[in-house]
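Dear colleagues,

I hope this message finds you well. In preparation for our joint manuscript, I am sending the Dehydratase (Solimonas terrae) sequence together with its predicted structure, so that both groups work from identical material. I would be grateful if you could confirm receipt.
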Amino acid sequence: MTKDFKNVQVGEPLPELRLPPVDRTMLALFAGASGDHVPLHIDTDFARRAGMPDVFAHGMLGMAWVGRLVTQWAPQRALRSFTVRFVAITHLGNAPVLSGKVVEILERNGERCARLDVQMANQFGQLKIQGDAIVALD
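The corresponding structure tokens are as follows:
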């Protein structure tokens, strides 16, 4: 089903995206796919020596999930900008819950666009990432 962007309104929510809990396999696969082999994300001993209780998710993995939320609502070709702020660490066992809503309809470079507030929390409602995206509606 194709979304009808002519009727998008301020306050409209994006469909929530719930993902499985972060585990070591997920982190290892992301490290391999992204080339981000920072030991804090894949080496428990290293993470503990650094004062962390264990490894934790890459920030860019969380950002990718937020991007997935946006591109499941609008086609990737409509994405005009996308920024995030990393608020807190996403620990092993955290199950990402991604949500967003339309906060503004605006014109940008001659296009009708929507500004979205997007976020990722865990299953306990603890905010991990806040973001903003601009999506063309034409």
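For the figure legend, we might mention the following. The CA atoms of residues 45 and 64 lie 26 Å apart. The first helix runs from residue 24 to 34.

With kind regards,
E.M.
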